[in-house]
Amino acid sequence: MKKRLQMKKLYKNTYRAGTARAQWWDYTENGAYFITICTKNRECYFGDVVDGQLVLSPTGEIAREMWLDIPNHHQHIELGEFVIMPNHVHGILIINKSVESSQTVESSHAVEPSQTVESSQMVESSHAVEPSHAVEPSH
């Protein structure tokens, strides 16, 4: 709670967006969580669909690399299926803590998941598309 207040003070609610989170659920609990990350104004930063296939842009390649790197930065996180679309990413994050460690692990993040991801690109969580397997970049 203290971190949340510090972030509100720091960003003066500039990046505050509504949340689709269930207020009654503890998102630090073990489980598989389906998430969607959208680009600001739904701009197609991640690539273009050509002949029915997504061709990742350099930014899309970075998004893919960053997604795959998540387990290297967050203990107890496994990746499920994910798909990168031209203006959003769908993915499944799996929290899998053992009983011993679940009592000492604390969930924290710099900003709300429905807020900023990088520099000037603000994200929101909403757009739904049928998930599929991860898209491999075309060369």
Structure description:
By secondary structure, the chain is an alpha+beta fold. It has helices at residues 2-11, 58-73, 99-102, and strands at residues 31-38, 47-50, 53-56, 77-84, 88-95, 116-118, 121-122. The strands form three sheets. The chain has a three-stranded antiparallel beta sheet, with helices on one face. A two-stranded antiparallel sheet has the order 2-3. The protein is globular and about 45 Å long. The termini are far apart.
Helix content: 10-25%
Q: Per DSSP, what share of the residues sits in E-state strands of 2 or more residues? A: 25-35%
Q: Which descriptor suits the 3D outline? A: globular
Could you name the ranges where pLDDT drops below 50 across 5 or more consecutive residues? 102-139
**What's the total helix number?**
3
Distance between the termini: 46 Å
Secondary-structure element order, N to C: HEEEHEEHEE
Number of strands: 7
In order across it, which strands form the biggest sheet?
Answer: 1-5-4
Average pLDDT for all residues: 74
Structural class estimated from helices and strands: alpha+beta
Rg estimate, integer Å = 16 Å
Specify the biggest β-sheet. Answer: 3 strands, antiparallel
List the helices and strands and how they pair.
Blueprint: H1 2-11, E1 31-38, E2 47-50, E3 53-56, H2 58-73, E4 77-84, E5 88-95, H3 99-102, E6 116-118, E7 121-122
Antiparallel strand pairs: 1-5, 2-3, 4-5, 6-7
